[in-house]
Amino acid sequence: MFINLCTLMNIISKINKISDHFLFKPLKTNVFAFFRIAVSIHCLVFVLSIYAEMHKFFGLSGFSNREVTETFIRLKFIPRLSWFSDIFGGLFSSDAQMLHFILLIHLIFIIMLLFGLFTRFSAIITLFIHLCIIQSNTFFLYGMDYFTTISLFFCTFMPVTDFSLDEFLLKRKTASPEFKRFCIRFIQIQMCFIYFFGGFHKAIGINWWNGESMWKALTRPPFNNFDFSFMAKYPIVFMLMGWATVVHEILYPFMAFTRFFRKYWVLAIITMHLCIGIFMGLYLFASIMIILNITAFLNKELDAVLNSLQLFTTRASGKIKQLHFPDLKFPLRVFKHIKN
Amino acid sequence: MKTPVKIILGAGMLIHYLLLSFINIDTTLDCIVNNKGILLVEMDQSTYRPIKKKLDLILGKTDYQFNDYLNYYLAYTGTETGYGFFAPNVPTSYKLVFEYTLRNKQKIIMIPQIKSHELGLRLCNYYETIGKTDMEILRNSLIRFMMQEQMKGLEDVVSAKAIFGLVITPSLSHYTQSKNNVYQFMYAYEYHIQNK
Protein backbone atom coordinates (compact mmCIF):
# COMPACT_ATOMS: atom_id res chain seq x y z
CA MET A 1 0.00 0.00 0.00
CA PHE A 2 2.80 2.36 1.05
CA ILE A 3 4.85 1.44 -2.05
CA ASN A 4 1.85 2.08 -4.28
CA LEU A 5 1.35 5.47 -2.68
CA CYS A 6 5.02 6.29 -3.26
CA THR A 7 4.82 5.33 -6.95
CA LEU A 8 1.66 7.41 -7.29
CA MET A 9 3.41 10.39 -5.70
CA ASN A 10 6.36 9.86 -8.02
CA ILE A 11 4.12 9.77 -11.07
CA ILE A 12 2.28 12.92 -9.94
CA SER A 13 5.53 14.81 -9.34
CA LYS A 14 6.86 13.70 -12.74
CA ILE A 15 3.67 14.86 -14.49
CA ASN A 16 3.91 18.11 -12.54
CA LYS A 17 7.50 18.62 -13.70
CA ILE A 18 6.72 17.81 -17.32
CA SER A 19 3.67 20.09 -17.43
CA ASP A 20 5.61 22.88 -15.68
CA HIS A 21 8.41 22.52 -18.23
CA PHE A 22 5.92 22.43 -21.12
CA LEU A 23 3.80 25.36 -20.03
CA PHE A 24 6.13 27.63 -18.09
CA LYS A 25 9.71 27.14 -19.32
CA PRO A 26 11.00 30.74 -19.61
CA LEU A 27 10.92 32.12 -23.14
CA LYS A 28 12.34 35.38 -24.42
CA THR A 29 10.63 36.42 -27.61
CA ASN A 30 9.34 39.46 -29.46
CA VAL A 31 6.71 37.48 -31.33
CA PHE A 32 3.85 39.05 -29.37
CA ALA A 33 4.78 42.49 -30.69
CA PHE A 34 4.53 41.04 -34.20
CA PHE A 35 1.18 39.46 -33.25
CA ARG A 36 -0.26 42.76 -31.99
CA ILE A 37 0.91 44.74 -35.02
CA ALA A 38 -0.15 42.09 -37.55
CA VAL A 39 -3.61 41.56 -35.99
CA SER A 40 -4.15 45.35 -35.87
CA ILE A 41 -3.23 45.73 -39.55
CA HIS A 42 -5.52 42.81 -40.39
CA CYS A 43 -8.41 44.48 -38.51
CA LEU A 44 -7.61 47.81 -40.16
CA VAL A 45 -7.86 46.25 -43.63
CA PHE A 46 -11.07 44.47 -42.64
CA VAL A 47 -12.73 47.68 -41.44
CA LEU A 48 -11.59 49.67 -44.49
CA SER A 49 -12.88 46.95 -46.81
CA ILE A 50 -16.39 47.03 -45.34
CA TYR A 51 -16.56 50.78 -44.59
CA ALA A 52 -18.28 51.97 -47.78
CA GLU A 53 -21.04 49.34 -47.82
CA MET A 54 -21.40 48.63 -44.09
CA HIS A 55 -24.98 49.94 -43.99
CA LYS A 56 -26.07 47.46 -46.69
CA PHE A 57 -25.14 44.49 -44.52
CA PHE A 58 -25.50 45.73 -40.97
CA GLY A 59 -28.00 48.57 -41.33
CA LEU A 60 -31.72 48.90 -40.84
CA SER A 61 -32.52 49.03 -44.55
CA GLY A 62 -30.02 47.21 -46.68
CA PHE A 63 -29.60 43.70 -47.98
CA SER A 64 -30.77 42.67 -44.55
CA ASN A 65 -32.49 44.34 -41.65
CA ARG A 66 -30.58 44.58 -38.39
CA GLU A 67 -33.77 44.47 -36.34
CA VAL A 68 -34.53 41.05 -37.83
CA THR A 69 -31.03 39.59 -37.76
CA GLU A 70 -30.48 40.63 -34.14
CA THR A 71 -33.51 38.60 -33.05
CA PHE A 72 -31.38 35.52 -33.72
CA ILE A 73 -28.95 36.45 -30.93
CA ARG A 74 -29.75 33.93 -28.22
CA LEU A 75 -28.38 35.71 -25.18
CA LYS A 76 -29.15 39.08 -23.67
CA PHE A 77 -25.62 40.37 -23.15
CA ILE A 78 -24.04 39.41 -26.45
CA PRO A 79 -22.75 42.67 -27.97
CA ARG A 80 -24.74 44.07 -30.88
CA LEU A 81 -24.96 47.25 -32.94
CA SER A 82 -28.39 48.22 -31.61
CA TRP A 83 -26.72 48.98 -28.25
CA PHE A 84 -24.94 51.83 -30.02
CA SER A 85 -28.11 53.01 -31.76
CA ASP A 86 -29.92 53.02 -28.40
CA ILE A 87 -27.27 55.35 -26.96
CA PHE A 88 -26.09 57.44 -29.95
CA GLY A 89 -28.99 56.96 -32.36
CA GLY A 90 -30.49 60.37 -31.63
CA LEU A 91 -27.25 62.16 -32.53
CA PHE A 92 -27.29 61.08 -36.17
CA SER A 93 -29.70 61.84 -38.98
CA SER A 94 -29.44 58.35 -40.49
CA ASP A 95 -28.52 54.82 -39.49
CA ALA A 96 -25.74 54.72 -42.10
CA GLN A 97 -24.13 57.76 -40.45
CA MET A 98 -24.21 56.06 -37.07
CA LEU A 99 -22.65 52.89 -38.50
CA HIS A 100 -19.83 54.92 -40.04
CA PHE A 101 -19.32 56.64 -36.69
CA ILE A 102 -19.01 53.21 -35.00
CA LEU A 103 -16.48 52.13 -37.61
CA LEU A 104 -14.51 55.34 -37.03
CA ILE A 105 -14.36 54.62 -33.28
CA HIS A 106 -13.34 51.07 -34.17
CA LEU A 107 -10.57 52.41 -36.41
CA ILE A 108 -9.26 54.71 -33.66
CA PHE A 109 -8.99 51.84 -31.19
CA ILE A 110 -7.39 49.56 -33.79
CA ILE A 111 -4.74 52.25 -34.46
CA MET A 112 -4.20 52.61 -30.71
CA LEU A 113 -3.72 48.84 -30.53
CA LEU A 114 -1.34 48.97 -33.49
CA PHE A 115 0.92 51.50 -31.75
CA GLY A 116 0.37 49.91 -28.35
CA LEU A 117 -1.20 52.89 -26.62
CA PHE A 118 -3.24 51.70 -23.62
CA THR A 119 -2.84 48.32 -25.29
CA ARG A 120 -5.02 46.19 -23.02
CA PHE A 121 -7.89 48.69 -22.98
CA SER A 122 -7.66 49.19 -26.77
CA ALA A 123 -7.73 45.42 -27.35
CA ILE A 124 -10.83 45.01 -25.16
CA ILE A 125 -12.71 47.84 -26.93
CA THR A 126 -11.62 46.57 -30.36
CA LEU A 127 -12.84 43.07 -29.48
CA PHE A 128 -16.11 44.51 -28.19
CA ILE A 129 -16.85 46.55 -31.34
CA HIS A 130 -15.77 43.65 -33.55
CA LEU A 131 -18.24 41.40 -31.68
CA CYS A 132 -20.97 44.04 -32.04
CA ILE A 133 -20.49 44.05 -35.80
CA ILE A 134 -20.29 40.31 -36.40
CA GLN A 135 -22.95 39.24 -33.90
CA SER A 136 -25.48 41.70 -35.33
CA ASN A 137 -25.72 39.69 -38.50
CA THR A 138 -24.58 36.11 -38.07
CA PHE A 139 -25.86 35.22 -41.56
CA PHE A 140 -22.84 36.99 -43.00
CA LEU A 141 -20.21 35.31 -40.82
CA TYR A 142 -17.48 33.07 -42.11
CA GLY A 143 -14.35 31.48 -40.64
CA MET A 144 -12.27 34.64 -40.75
CA ASP A 145 -14.58 36.42 -38.28
CA TYR A 146 -14.14 33.70 -35.66
CA PHE A 147 -10.36 33.70 -36.06
CA THR A 148 -10.25 37.50 -35.78
CA THR A 149 -12.29 37.26 -32.57
CA ILE A 150 -9.91 34.61 -31.20
CA SER A 151 -6.89 36.77 -32.09
CA LEU A 152 -8.37 39.87 -30.46
CA PHE A 153 -9.25 37.80 -27.41
CA PHE A 154 -5.59 36.75 -27.24
CA CYS A 155 -4.58 40.42 -27.42
CA THR A 156 -6.69 41.19 -24.34
CA PHE A 157 -4.62 39.08 -21.96
CA MET A 158 -1.38 38.11 -23.68
CA PRO A 159 1.87 40.10 -23.27
CA VAL A 160 1.47 42.13 -26.47
CA THR A 161 2.95 45.34 -25.04
CA ASP A 162 6.51 44.79 -26.39
CA PHE A 163 7.64 47.59 -28.73
CA SER A 164 4.60 49.64 -27.79
CA LEU A 165 3.99 53.23 -26.77
CA ASP A 166 2.97 51.85 -23.37
CA GLU A 167 6.50 50.50 -22.96
CA PHE A 168 8.28 53.65 -24.16
CA LEU A 169 6.04 56.39 -22.76
CA LEU A 170 4.35 54.85 -19.75
CA LYS A 171 7.30 52.58 -18.84
CA ARG A 172 5.09 49.52 -18.43
CA LYS A 173 6.91 46.39 -17.31
CA THR A 174 7.29 43.58 -19.82
CA ALA A 175 5.69 40.23 -18.98
CA SER A 176 7.64 37.43 -17.34
CA PRO A 177 9.29 34.89 -19.67
CA GLU A 178 7.24 32.12 -18.03
CA PHE A 179 3.99 33.87 -18.94
CA LYS A 180 5.25 34.33 -22.51
CA ARG A 181 5.80 30.57 -22.78
CA PHE A 182 2.33 29.92 -21.39
CA CYS A 183 0.75 32.23 -23.97
CA ILE A 184 2.69 30.66 -26.84
CA ARG A 185 1.46 27.24 -25.72
CA PHE A 186 -2.09 28.60 -25.54
CA ILE A 187 -1.95 29.72 -29.17
CA GLN A 188 -0.18 26.51 -30.25
CA ILE A 189 -2.85 24.26 -28.75
CA GLN A 190 -5.60 26.41 -30.27
CA MET A 191 -3.98 26.00 -33.70
CA CYS A 192 -3.73 22.24 -33.19
CA PHE A 193 -7.46 22.09 -32.44
CA ILE A 194 -8.27 24.19 -35.51
CA TYR A 195 -6.28 22.04 -37.92
CA PHE A 196 -6.96 18.63 -36.43
CA PHE A 197 -10.73 19.03 -36.43
CA GLY A 198 -10.68 20.92 -39.74
CA GLY A 199 -8.72 18.05 -41.32
CA PHE A 200 -10.84 15.37 -39.65
CA HIS A 201 -14.09 16.90 -40.92
CA LYS A 202 -12.63 17.07 -44.43
CA ALA A 203 -11.49 13.45 -44.18
CA ILE A 204 -15.08 12.33 -43.52
CA GLY A 205 -16.19 13.64 -46.92
CA ILE A 206 -15.37 11.34 -49.81
CA ASN A 207 -14.86 14.33 -52.14
CA TRP A 208 -11.67 15.47 -50.42
CA TRP A 209 -10.11 12.12 -51.34
CA ASN A 210 -11.12 11.99 -55.02
CA GLY A 211 -10.18 15.59 -55.83
CA GLU A 212 -13.75 16.83 -56.38
CA SER A 213 -13.75 19.15 -53.33
CA MET A 214 -10.44 20.72 -54.34
CA TRP A 215 -11.77 21.23 -57.89
CA LYS A 216 -15.02 22.69 -56.58
CA ALA A 217 -13.22 24.99 -54.13
CA LEU A 218 -11.21 26.47 -56.98
CA THR A 219 -13.98 26.67 -59.59
CA ARG A 220 -17.19 27.53 -57.72
CA PRO A 221 -18.23 31.17 -57.70
CA PRO A 222 -17.14 33.47 -56.03
CA PHE A 223 -13.90 31.61 -55.34
CA ASN A 224 -13.05 31.17 -59.02
CA ASN A 225 -10.52 34.00 -59.12
CA PHE A 226 -8.42 32.10 -61.66
CA ASP A 227 -9.46 29.79 -64.45
CA PHE A 228 -8.36 26.26 -63.57
CA SER A 229 -10.36 24.55 -66.31
CA PHE A 230 -7.20 23.63 -68.23
CA MET A 231 -6.21 21.47 -65.24
CA ALA A 232 -9.33 19.30 -65.59
CA LYS A 233 -7.29 16.99 -67.84
CA TYR A 234 -5.16 16.07 -64.85
CA PRO A 235 -7.59 15.00 -62.08
CA ILE A 236 -4.72 13.34 -60.24
CA VAL A 237 -3.35 16.82 -59.41
CA PHE A 238 -6.58 17.77 -57.60
CA MET A 239 -6.65 14.40 -55.88
CA LEU A 240 -3.10 14.85 -54.59
CA MET A 241 -3.87 18.41 -53.51
CA GLY A 242 -6.93 17.16 -51.59
CA TRP A 243 -4.91 14.41 -49.90
CA ALA A 244 -2.13 16.84 -49.03
CA THR A 245 -4.62 19.25 -47.43
CA VAL A 246 -6.29 16.55 -45.33
CA VAL A 247 -3.02 14.90 -44.25
CA HIS A 248 -1.31 18.20 -43.44
CA GLU A 249 -4.24 19.38 -41.35
CA ILE A 250 -4.80 16.14 -39.43
CA LEU A 251 -1.12 15.61 -38.67
CA TYR A 252 -0.50 19.27 -37.77
CA PRO A 253 -0.74 18.75 -33.96
CA PHE A 254 1.81 15.94 -34.08
CA MET A 255 4.26 17.35 -36.61
CA ALA A 256 4.27 20.93 -35.34
CA PHE A 257 5.64 19.74 -32.00
CA THR A 258 8.50 17.68 -33.48
CA ARG A 259 11.86 19.39 -33.77
CA PHE A 260 12.58 18.04 -37.25
CA PHE A 261 9.25 18.62 -39.02
CA ARG A 262 7.97 21.76 -37.26
CA LYS A 263 9.36 24.35 -39.63
CA TYR A 264 8.51 22.48 -42.84
CA TRP A 265 5.03 21.50 -41.72
CA VAL A 266 4.10 25.02 -40.66
CA LEU A 267 5.61 26.48 -43.84
CA ALA A 268 3.54 24.01 -45.89
CA ILE A 269 0.38 25.13 -44.05
CA ILE A 270 1.33 28.80 -44.60
CA THR A 271 1.81 28.04 -48.32
CA MET A 272 -1.65 26.46 -48.36
CA HIS A 273 -3.13 29.63 -46.85
CA LEU A 274 -1.21 31.80 -49.33
CA CYS A 275 -2.77 29.75 -52.14
CA ILE A 276 -6.23 30.14 -50.54
CA GLY A 277 -5.66 33.90 -50.43
CA ILE A 278 -4.37 34.23 -53.99
CA PHE A 279 -6.45 31.68 -55.88
CA MET A 280 -9.72 31.78 -53.93
CA GLY A 281 -9.68 35.46 -53.01
CA LEU A 282 -10.02 34.81 -49.27
CA TYR A 283 -7.29 37.37 -48.47
CA LEU A 284 -8.33 38.22 -44.94
CA PHE A 285 -8.89 34.59 -43.96
CA ALA A 286 -5.44 33.73 -45.31
CA SER A 287 -3.79 36.65 -43.54
CA ILE A 288 -5.21 35.88 -40.08
CA MET A 289 -4.28 32.19 -40.39
CA ILE A 290 -0.73 33.04 -41.45
CA ILE A 291 -0.39 35.48 -38.54
CA LEU A 292 -1.59 32.82 -36.07
CA ASN A 293 0.73 30.17 -37.54
CA ILE A 294 3.81 32.40 -37.43
CA THR A 295 3.04 33.46 -33.85
CA ALA A 296 2.43 29.91 -32.69
CA PHE A 297 5.25 27.96 -34.25
CA LEU A 298 7.73 30.24 -36.02
CA ASN A 299 8.62 32.55 -33.13
CA LYS A 300 12.29 31.50 -33.11
CA GLU A 301 12.66 32.21 -36.82
CA LEU A 302 10.81 35.51 -36.45
CA ASP A 303 13.09 36.55 -33.57
CA ALA A 304 16.14 35.70 -35.67
CA VAL A 305 14.84 37.84 -38.54
CA LEU A 306 14.03 40.71 -36.15
CA ASN A 307 17.48 40.51 -34.55
CA SER A 308 19.28 40.55 -37.88
CA LEU A 309 17.10 43.47 -39.00
CA GLN A 310 17.92 45.35 -35.81
CA LEU A 311 21.65 44.66 -36.31
CA PHE A 312 21.43 45.79 -39.91
CA THR A 313 19.65 49.05 -39.04
CA THR A 314 22.10 49.94 -36.24
CA ARG A 315 25.07 49.27 -38.53
CA ALA A 316 23.48 51.15 -41.39
CA SER A 317 22.58 54.15 -39.24
CA GLY A 318 26.15 54.20 -37.83
CA LYS A 319 27.58 54.22 -41.33
CA ILE A 320 25.19 56.92 -42.51
CA LYS A 321 26.25 59.12 -39.58
CA GLN A 322 29.93 58.61 -40.46
CA LEU A 323 29.32 59.27 -44.14
CA HIS A 324 27.01 62.24 -44.13
CA PHE A 325 27.21 64.01 -40.85
CA PRO A 326 30.90 64.39 -39.95
CA ASP A 327 30.27 68.13 -39.39
CA LEU A 328 27.85 67.32 -36.58
CA LYS A 329 30.68 66.07 -34.34
CA PHE A 330 31.77 69.55 -33.30
CA PRO A 331 28.29 70.98 -32.46
CA LEU A 332 27.52 67.76 -30.54
CA ARG A 333 30.71 68.18 -28.49
CA VAL A 334 29.75 71.81 -27.75
CA PHE A 335 26.22 70.70 -26.77
CA LYS A 336 27.63 68.08 -24.38
CA HIS A 337 29.99 70.65 -22.88
CA ILE A 338 27.15 73.15 -22.27
CA LYS A 339 25.02 70.38 -20.79
CA ASN A 340 27.77 69.37 -18.35
CA MET B 1 5.99 33.15 -11.49
CA LYS B 2 4.41 31.82 -8.30
CA THR B 3 2.89 28.33 -8.15
CA PRO B 4 -0.73 29.43 -7.35
CA VAL B 5 -0.67 31.71 -10.42
CA LYS B 6 0.59 28.80 -12.51
CA ILE B 7 -2.19 26.56 -11.19
CA ILE B 8 -4.85 29.18 -12.02
CA LEU B 9 -3.45 29.69 -15.53
CA GLY B 10 -3.19 25.94 -16.13
CA ALA B 11 -6.76 25.36 -14.92
CA GLY B 12 -8.06 28.18 -17.13
CA MET B 13 -6.32 26.70 -20.13
CA LEU B 14 -7.70 23.25 -19.32
CA ILE B 15 -11.28 24.54 -19.09
CA HIS B 16 -10.90 26.52 -22.34
CA TYR B 17 -9.69 23.51 -24.27
CA LEU B 18 -12.17 21.16 -22.66
CA LEU B 19 -14.97 23.40 -23.93
CA LEU B 20 -13.35 23.58 -27.35
CA SER B 21 -13.13 19.77 -27.41
CA PHE B 22 -16.84 19.44 -26.57
CA ILE B 23 -17.80 21.89 -29.32
CA ASN B 24 -15.67 20.13 -31.90
CA ILE B 25 -16.84 16.66 -30.88
CA ASP B 26 -20.40 17.95 -31.15
CA THR B 27 -19.87 19.28 -34.69
CA THR B 28 -17.95 16.11 -35.66
CA LEU B 29 -20.88 13.96 -34.52
CA ASP B 30 -23.26 16.09 -36.59
CA CYS B 31 -20.93 15.71 -39.52
CA ILE B 32 -20.79 11.90 -39.20
CA VAL B 33 -24.55 11.56 -38.76
CA ASN B 34 -25.41 13.72 -41.76
CA ASN B 35 -22.74 12.45 -44.15
CA LYS B 36 -21.97 8.89 -45.05
CA GLY B 37 -18.64 9.91 -46.57
CA ILE B 38 -15.44 7.96 -46.21
CA LEU B 39 -16.58 6.14 -43.07
CA LEU B 40 -19.19 4.38 -45.25
CA VAL B 41 -21.42 3.82 -42.25
CA GLU B 42 -24.09 6.02 -40.84
CA MET B 43 -23.96 6.39 -37.10
CA ASP B 44 -26.86 4.71 -35.41
CA GLN B 45 -29.33 7.22 -33.96
CA SER B 46 -29.44 5.25 -30.70
CA THR B 47 -25.68 5.74 -30.30
CA TYR B 48 -25.72 9.33 -31.44
CA ARG B 49 -28.63 10.78 -29.49
CA PRO B 50 -27.47 10.11 -25.89
CA ILE B 51 -23.98 11.54 -26.61
CA LYS B 52 -25.47 14.54 -28.40
CA LYS B 53 -27.91 15.12 -25.52
CA LYS B 54 -25.09 15.16 -22.98
CA LEU B 55 -22.95 17.49 -25.09
CA ASP B 56 -25.88 19.84 -25.63
CA LEU B 57 -26.46 19.93 -21.89
CA ILE B 58 -22.78 20.71 -21.20
CA LEU B 59 -22.67 23.39 -23.90
CA GLY B 60 -25.93 24.90 -22.70
CA LYS B 61 -27.81 24.42 -25.96
CA THR B 62 -30.85 22.91 -24.34
CA ASP B 63 -31.03 24.88 -21.14
CA TYR B 64 -29.87 28.45 -21.79
CA GLN B 65 -30.32 29.76 -18.27
CA PHE B 66 -28.24 26.95 -16.78
CA ASN B 67 -25.22 27.56 -18.96
CA ASP B 68 -25.53 31.19 -19.97
CA TYR B 69 -22.09 32.13 -18.65
CA LEU B 70 -20.52 29.36 -20.66
CA ASN B 71 -22.16 30.58 -23.85
CA TYR B 72 -21.06 34.13 -23.13
CA TYR B 73 -17.49 32.91 -22.73
CA LEU B 74 -17.68 30.99 -26.01
CA ALA B 75 -19.12 33.97 -27.89
CA TYR B 76 -16.65 36.47 -26.44
CA THR B 77 -13.67 34.24 -27.27
CA GLY B 78 -14.79 33.30 -30.77
CA THR B 79 -14.96 29.60 -29.94
CA GLU B 80 -18.69 29.05 -30.29
CA THR B 81 -18.35 27.02 -33.46
CA GLY B 82 -16.38 24.03 -34.68
CA TYR B 83 -13.66 24.23 -37.30
CA GLY B 84 -15.18 22.20 -40.12
CA PHE B 85 -15.00 24.91 -42.77
CA PHE B 86 -15.42 23.60 -46.34
CA ALA B 87 -15.99 20.18 -44.79
CA PRO B 88 -16.95 17.41 -45.24
CA ASN B 89 -17.71 18.79 -48.72
CA VAL B 90 -17.35 22.20 -50.32
CA PRO B 91 -20.78 23.90 -50.15
CA THR B 92 -22.80 24.60 -53.28
CA SER B 93 -23.25 28.08 -54.72
CA TYR B 94 -26.58 29.84 -55.01
CA LYS B 95 -27.89 32.55 -57.27
CA LEU B 96 -30.57 35.15 -56.76
CA VAL B 97 -32.05 37.01 -59.73
CA PHE B 98 -34.60 39.82 -59.61
CA GLU B 99 -36.94 40.79 -62.38
CA TYR B 100 -38.52 44.23 -61.97
CA THR B 101 -41.50 45.34 -64.02
CA LEU B 102 -41.81 49.09 -64.49
CA ARG B 103 -45.01 51.08 -65.03
CA ASN B 104 -44.31 51.24 -68.80
CA LYS B 105 -44.21 47.39 -68.84
CA GLN B 106 -40.46 47.42 -69.31
CA LYS B 107 -38.71 44.51 -67.56
CA ILE B 108 -35.32 44.86 -65.87
CA ILE B 109 -33.32 41.85 -64.73
CA MET B 110 -30.77 42.40 -61.97
CA ILE B 111 -28.58 40.45 -59.60
CA PRO B 112 -27.41 41.93 -56.26
CA GLN B 113 -24.25 43.96 -56.79
CA ILE B 114 -21.56 44.50 -54.13
CA LYS B 115 -18.46 46.63 -54.73
CA SER B 116 -16.45 45.32 -51.80
CA HIS B 117 -14.81 41.94 -52.43
CA GLU B 118 -14.86 41.15 -48.71
CA LEU B 119 -18.61 41.76 -48.41
CA GLY B 120 -19.21 39.88 -51.65
CA LEU B 121 -17.78 36.76 -49.99
CA ARG B 122 -20.23 37.24 -47.14
CA LEU B 123 -23.12 37.35 -49.57
CA CYS B 124 -22.47 33.64 -50.29
CA ASN B 125 -23.12 32.81 -46.63
CA TYR B 126 -26.26 34.90 -46.79
CA TYR B 127 -27.47 32.91 -49.81
CA GLU B 128 -26.60 29.71 -48.00
CA THR B 129 -28.85 30.77 -45.12
CA ILE B 130 -31.65 31.52 -47.60
CA GLY B 131 -31.13 28.19 -49.32
CA LYS B 132 -30.89 26.02 -46.24
CA THR B 133 -33.38 27.52 -43.81
CA ASP B 134 -36.60 25.64 -43.13
CA MET B 135 -38.33 28.84 -42.03
CA GLU B 136 -40.33 30.07 -44.99
CA ILE B 137 -40.98 33.46 -43.37
CA LEU B 138 -37.25 34.04 -42.84
CA ARG B 139 -36.40 33.08 -46.42
CA ASN B 140 -39.10 35.37 -47.78
CA SER B 141 -38.00 38.27 -45.55
CA LEU B 142 -34.32 37.94 -46.45
CA ILE B 143 -35.10 37.93 -50.17
CA ARG B 144 -37.49 40.86 -49.76
CA PHE B 145 -34.83 42.95 -47.98
CA MET B 146 -32.47 42.33 -50.88
CA MET B 147 -35.16 43.20 -53.38
CA GLN B 148 -35.95 46.47 -51.60
CA GLU B 149 -32.28 47.47 -51.47
CA GLN B 150 -31.80 46.63 -55.14
CA MET B 151 -34.93 48.57 -56.09
CA LYS B 152 -33.65 51.85 -54.62
CA GLY B 153 -32.10 52.93 -57.91
CA LEU B 154 -35.20 52.21 -59.98
CA GLU B 155 -38.18 54.45 -60.67
CA ASP B 156 -41.83 53.37 -61.12
CA VAL B 157 -41.52 49.72 -60.23
CA VAL B 158 -44.91 48.02 -60.08
CA SER B 159 -43.89 44.45 -59.39
CA ALA B 160 -40.83 42.36 -58.71
CA LYS B 161 -40.03 38.68 -59.07
CA ALA B 162 -37.25 36.95 -57.19
CA ILE B 163 -35.87 33.65 -58.42
CA PHE B 164 -33.54 31.75 -56.16
CA GLY B 165 -31.65 28.64 -57.20
CA LEU B 166 -28.57 26.48 -57.06
CA VAL B 167 -25.54 26.94 -59.27
CA ILE B 168 -24.19 23.49 -60.04
CA THR B 169 -20.68 23.72 -61.40
CA PRO B 170 -19.52 20.79 -63.55
CA SER B 171 -17.74 18.13 -61.53
CA LEU B 172 -14.14 17.21 -62.20
CA SER B 173 -15.09 13.84 -63.67
CA HIS B 174 -17.73 15.33 -66.01
CA TYR B 175 -15.99 18.54 -66.98
CA THR B 176 -14.79 17.27 -70.35
CA GLN B 177 -18.40 16.38 -71.34
CA SER B 178 -20.09 19.56 -70.15
CA LYS B 179 -18.30 22.75 -69.25
CA ASN B 180 -21.33 24.91 -68.45
CA ASN B 181 -22.82 25.66 -65.06
CA VAL B 182 -26.32 24.29 -64.46
CA TYR B 183 -28.92 26.37 -62.63
CA GLN B 184 -31.44 24.51 -60.54
CA PHE B 185 -34.60 26.33 -59.53
CA MET B 186 -35.43 26.34 -55.81
CA TYR B 187 -37.79 29.18 -54.87
CA ALA B 188 -39.61 32.05 -56.54
CA TYR B 189 -41.46 34.99 -55.03
CA GLU B 190 -43.54 37.74 -56.54
CA TYR B 191 -44.00 41.11 -54.89
CA HIS B 192 -46.51 43.78 -55.91
CA ILE B 193 -45.18 47.19 -55.11
CA GLN B 194 -47.92 49.68 -54.34
CA ASN B 195 -46.01 52.46 -52.70
CA LYS B 196 -42.29 52.75 -53.02
General description of the model:
Chain B: The chain crosses the membrane at residues 7-25. Chain B: Keywords: Membrane, Transmembrane, Transmembrane helix. The complex is a heterodimer of chains A (340) and B (196). Chain A is mainly α. Chain A has 3 domains: 32-175, no CATH class; 191-297, no CATH class; 307-339, no CATH class. Chain A has helices spanning 2-24, 31-51, 54-58, 66-69, 81-88, 95-115, 119-136, 143-157, 165-168, 177-204, 212-219, 235-255, 262-280, 283-297, 299-324, 329-339. The longest helix of chain A is centred in the middle third of the chain and has 28 residues, at 177-204. The mean pLDDT of chain A is 88. With 196 residues, chain B is α+β, with helices and mostly antiparallel strands. Chain B has 2 domains: 3-76, no CATH class; 93-192, no CATH class. Chain B is 44% helix and 19% strand. Chain B has helices at 3-34, 45-58, 68-76, 117-132, 136-151; strands spanning 93-102, 107-110, 157-168, 182-192. Chain B has a 4-stranded antiparallel β-sheet. Chain B is elongated and about 80 Å long. The termini of chain B are far apart. The model of chain B has no long low-confidence stretch (mean pLDDT 83). Chains A and B meet through helix 1, helix 2, helix 7, helix 8 and helix 10 of A and helix 1, helix 3, helix 4 and helix 5 of B.
